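=== RUN LOG ===
request id: a7f3
mode: sequence -> structure
chains: 1
length: 459
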Amino acid sequence: MTFVSYSQNAEDVLLWRALGHIDAGFYIDVGASDPVEHSVTKAFYERGWRGISIEPLPSFQQEFERQRPRDINLAIAAGAEDGELTLYDTPEVRGWASPDQAVAEMHRAEGHRIAELTVPVRTLASVCEEYVRGEIHFLKIDVEGFEGDVLRGMDFARWRPWLLVIEATLPNSRETNHASWEHLVAGQGYRFVWFDGLNRWYVAEEHPELMGHFGIAPNVFDDYISHHLDKAWRNGEALAATLHEVDARARAQMEAAEQRLALLDRELRAANEAAAHEARHADQQRLHFEEEMRRAGKELDRVEAVRAHFENETLRANEEIGQLQEKLAQVHESARHLSDWARGLDQRLQATLASTSWKVTAPLRKAGAIVHSLRRPDLARRLATRLSSNERVRRTVIPVLRSHPALGEKVSAAIAAIKLDAAPPDGVIVPEELKGLPLSARAVLADLRRARGEAQAGS
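=== RESULT ===
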């Protein structure tokens, strides 16, 4: 399995070359900085190791707590004695925090911003006393020029890391500075075995079997890649998978879009057909509406003509009403004159009837009336009519006439002849106003006229 290196200078590759056979080993990382970036212990933690991570910057310590729950993560600085110190941090550059003021001034001279903070200090011996219960397989120290103070606070007689990896150059430089502290290691039973250009490597004398793993820099035979390359490959694979997924989705979306487009095309054609049908229907409706409008116009004209005719008829009716009112007035006037004439006539008649001459001549008038009656040509007709209309006479005479048909025919002929004689003689003119009156009414009117004439003559 390819080893993924997270360290800055392939330190973890050399360490794995020498200690890869250890199962669940233990480490101490002084100046751990970041749990991933430039980490010497990340690859070991992934393989089941655990240890102590010492990093005084609070932000990094929080990340260690989150990503390294098996580790003992201490937000302190390691020094020659317990206490506290001022740490000079360069926030823009990861891993340059140092307790050495000269190093801070060098960074400030290069234009970097320096942040000062006070942190607690403990010796490595006290840390080991509290937390270490077995072998320490390697100790790594990277404190930006403060390595000597860290080594002075370690009890190598009691605590014997198998390997020491100590940064041996001035910060951000190829110039070595190990001369100031190497005696603190060599005098404690450790042998120098390798300088990788940044760190000096030491093996405890009691583990000479590890010395054979050094002398050759990490190379292709160590079967490793940097985590940046691994990340890039993983990102590339993820990107390829994403691209494949995107391509698949794009193809699916393309197919769906084509299907949708075909559906939309069908819907569009259907909509066009429906629109054309609606247009035809609307045109028919328009023509029908225009026809209805023409019919309505004609009907309106007819109604207008009827209205005009009605107005004319109304005018004529009003005129006729006026004329009828005038005639009615005339009739009322005539009726008034007739009423006046009738009252006058009645008064004269009453006067006549009350006169002495009328009373004296009464016997003469009765005798004259009898003679006149006997002389009237319709006497026989009246007698015949009265006898034929009498029910008792009819019941007596009809059976006799039915038993003697010849006699019955002669009687019927005689009665018809008498009735025909009642008609006015030829040459006698009946006034138009008397034609509608019955003969009896005409007789009464004639008697009145005659009596009037006699009254006038007597007076």
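=== NOTES ===
Residues 226-354 form one domain.
The mean pLDDT is 82.
=== END ===
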